[in-house]
Structures are given as C-alpha cells and as structure tokens.
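User: My instructor asked us to take a sequence, write out its structure as tokens, and then describe one feature of it. I'm not sure where to start. Here is the sequence I was given:
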Amino acid sequence: MNLLARHLLVALALTAWSAPASAAETRAAPPGMVLIPAGLYHPLLRDKNDLPAVPVAAFLLDERPVTNAEFLAFVRDQPKWRRSRVSRLFADEIYLSHWAGDLALGPAAPADAPVVNVSWFSARAYAIWRGARLPTVAEWERAATAGFATDDGMKREPEFRTAVFTWLARPAPDPLPAVGHGRPNLYGVRDLLGLVWEWTDDFNTAMVTGESRADPGLERNLFCGAGSISATDKEDYPAFVRSGFRSSLRANYSVPNLGFRCAEDLADQAPPNPK
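Assistant: Let's start with the prediction itself. The structure tokens for your sequence are:
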C-alpha cells in the first residue's frame, strides 16, 4: 500500500470515529464500569510503514483495578489458581506471595487494595471467569490519554502531567492503599495512572522485534537512546516507561506493583482487533 493510500485510510478513520455516538455508546455503563468512547490511539513507537493512528471502538472499562477481595473470590471458586496449586507455567513463585495463605489475605494484602503479584495468565482467567476480558494496549492507552478535564492530559493539563510524573518518581507504598480514591479522569476512570501498573491483553506486542542486536532484521531504533527517534511524542516519558515495562514481561511473571482491571465490548458492535 502506498503512502497516499495510507493517509486516506487514516482520514477515513478520523471521519468514522468523529461520527455521532451509537445507541450502545449512549446507554449507561453497568455498575463499576465506565464507557470509553470511540477514538484513535496514536502509538508512541511505530515503523515508517505503520499508520499513525489506530481506530479504537467504544468499550467498557472497570472504573478501578481489581481488588484482593475480588481476586480471593475467584481463587475460592477456581482452586487451580490458588497459590499452592497453580502451575509454574502460568505463574511464577512470586504469585500472590504477599497473601497470608491460599485463602487468607493478611496485613500485606488489604481486601480493598489492588491485587498484585498476579500473572497475565491468572489476570486473564479472572476476567473470563467474570465474563469480561483484559483491555488491549490500544484501549488502555486510549483511556489513559484522558486527563482530568480534557482528552489529552499530557499535552493540555500541566496539573495532570505533574501528577503522573510524581507517581512515577515515588516508590509504591507497602501495603498498597485502597482502590477508587484517585481523582477520576475525563471518562470517570480512577487509578489508571497513580496506583499500580496494569496488565493488558496484548502486552507482549509492545516493542521488541528481535532477540539480538546482531539480528539483521532488527529494528534498531527501538533500543536505548535511539528509541526516541521513531517516537510520535518524544516528551511523553510515561509512555516510554510503559512500553519498556511491557516489553520486559513474560506471561507467567508476577510483580509486586502490577495488577489489572477488566474491559468489555459493547453489545452491538464487533470487538476491536488487537492486531
């Protein structure tokens, strides 16, 4: 596809995603979830042949991260995901290590704090058990772009930008505080940037294209300082950190400050394609 055709596709996407809201988008979100309207995701890092924007269909997203109490209900109902029974193929030895036991939270895991030390496999299993799914990178970033009052907090809201940088600069408290107390963004989402990192469904498509710098097919602009060369916004440091963190993960990893939240499709439209 030539460059002109690609720009025409982007123009069509912009037109389509600026259309009036569908009937599904105007319905109220279920309790505990908020509606993220259709829009565009602008990948931070892209190849010269990639489209500059990816259409994201409207979707539902949890207002706040999944808690220890909610995950405890899951492992009670699904014994194979208990700490002592889970396969190491699906969760490493750090999995739920801060809990007091298989079915006991303890002081290091307050019931209303976000669940962490969970693998991608276990987070995905929880989402399916709940009748939901994990958000894609495009969906998560689409929701995280919104500031407190505008649809692009990093560029338009110095207060939002300062809040995000402040969170990145300080260690996570131990134990973690309760979910749902962060200031909501434009769409009503809380704690997306300011409490814990979060799994996405396609986290491992984030950044790296090869196993070695000697690989002749490797995109070298993705490494070290050169990583900013192909970036769409060289000042969005938090997005660089998120891309780097995602690319370092494996699906069975469990991390003390990595949790998740769930997403759902709207009933009358096809789910967005994560690829």
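For the description part of your assignment, you could build on this observation: The beta strands are 33-36, 39-41, 54-56, 59-62, 197-198, 258-259, 263-265. Try explaining in your own words what that tells you about the chain.
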